[in-house]
Amino acid sequence: MYYIGVDLGGTNIAVGLVDEDGRIVHKDSVPTLREREYPEIVKDMAQLILRVIEHERINIKDVAGIGIGCPGTPDRKAGVLVYANNLKFDNAPLRDEIQKYINIPVYLDNDANVAALAESVAGAARGVAHSVTITIGTGVGSGIIIDGKVYCGFNDSGAEIGHAVICVDGEPCTCGRDGCWEAYASATALINQTKAAARNNPDSLLNTITGGNLDKIEAKTAFDAAHMGDSTALKVIERYITYLAEGITNVINIFQPEILCIGGGVCKQGEYLLKPLREMVSQKVYSRGSTRQCQIKVAEMGNDAGIVGAAMLGKTGI
Amino acid sequence: MYYIGVDLGGTNIAVGLVDEDGRIVHKDSVPTLREREYPEIVKDMAQLILRVIEHERINIKDVAGIGIGCPGTPDRKAGVLVYANNLKFDNAPLRDEIQKYINIPVYLDNDANVAALAESVAGAARGVAHSVTITIGTGVGSGIIIDGKVYCGFNDSGAEIGHAVICVDGEPCTCGRDGCWEAYASATALINQTKAAARNNPDSLLNTITGGNLDKIEAKTAFDAAHMGDSTALKVIERYITYLAEGITNVINIFQPEILCIGGGVCKQGEYLLKPLREMVSQKVYSRGSTRQCQIKVAEMGNDAGIVGAAMLGKTGI
What we know:
The structure is a homodimer. Chain A contains 10 helices and 13 strands. Chain A has helices spanning 38-55, 94-99, 111-122, 182-185, 187-200, 205-208, 221-227, 231-255, 271-284, 305-316; strands at residues 2-8, 12-18, 24-31, 63-70, 72-75, 80-84, 90-92, 106-110, 131-136, 140-146, 149-151, 259-263, 295-298. By secondary structure, chain A is an alpha/beta fold. At the A-B interface, α8 of A face α8 of B.
């Protein structure tokens, strides 16, 4: 069988035909034109799905389902997109609307869950039953795979590991709590930590390489300066990796996934990030006496995670 | 069918015959005599199991399995008790040893997982697929039920929610990390917090009611003084409930269980504890805009949790 995966973004609707093993056979995209209401957007989506299927001369009977991933809150059982950060409408009955055009099973989920499913089926966590995928970006996204399926709680709102507090009364988080892991381990947090260090250490290379303009500081700035041996930057990175390690150790103590995947731009640092991270985790983890340890890996699916993970909802079910 | 549940403690071996609904039909116990090696202990256990079955005139063919719960680390697939806090031996092949006497399926798990399963089948979380049970005692124990079954990771070592850090660089924990939830929310932690407050506030009732002997402070001492209106005790309790609420909010953000059960002596405080706890959680939880919220309940199974939960391993499988 084949599966259709839809990555519903604020800019583009990307659709892929995916095989049993999570490989994209063919993909295509159209602009989302996000100001529109859902019936028009779904009409374009349905036409694109049919075009992708026709391109490969696949019979619709050989397509087991359509999965849709998007940033936001799905009601997975109802097939309704309750809320999406990047779209204008709320409570859109996407399943019913798509089935007006293509009458096969339709599944919805959010982008973090779908990314975790993609890693589980075809990426860094393939072959194991339990995995967790953490995506370091503007926030800290997370998806939990248990027995090969997305787990997100009774109301589809779970798996918000980035919004678990690691410092009671700590840094304010966008979610309204103080001290969430996201407020310490996201790329946004690293940028803030780097800016503070640059301000407090005028002689640091952090100031030199940004020409003294703190607004030019990116997530990679502290890594760049650390590679040049800047002691302030080295301290920023060490502290940042500590925060990352504390949260990852929490995840392992709670879930003991066989594989934990880390994705996002920060992973471009490769072993420079991962080696000290793995060392810290191995010293802290509750099961450190056990012979069977969770492996920490870099996520592999990149931009295809949305399509592949959404498509695989049709294989695993919700 | 019936199920045998064994609660293997450091003092007694308690055995119960349990029905499909998690009701104890008959139970009995013998002393563990914990200094012994496992073959002798298992021999007594097997004889007690057979006695309990015979007492009810049940045919062994109507007993689907034997479940054993104990404090420690099981290898659930192998049926081996790798390590138990309260017993002398390591790596005991309990399944094989029991099956020398009674050749039916045998399951092992630790006490926190078994307690959670008992609540799920017959206690405060009955009727829902996903629940988490937190037990506040010397430590903070936790068991996770997903789709009606115990979840504890690929190596059986997960569900250590008490050893998730809520304060990076915080109070030292028995596990070797600093800042674990257990170091703030266990009964032990509450006692330490109460002692510190008594020391710093000589005029507090905390000193009066213990006759000035801080060693007499128990987990309930701060509650007792707070009920009498002591301002120091009220602050201790408010702060303690805050720590409890931060950890519980983390659990809900991650798992969104339909029901979260809290057990342990501190629950005797009833609504005095639960009302402010629920209020704090409802203000902090990530899904606070949703119409579907996790319910926080007091665990119901008490001393029967060990027998019932262990027995139900035979029904749910591992």
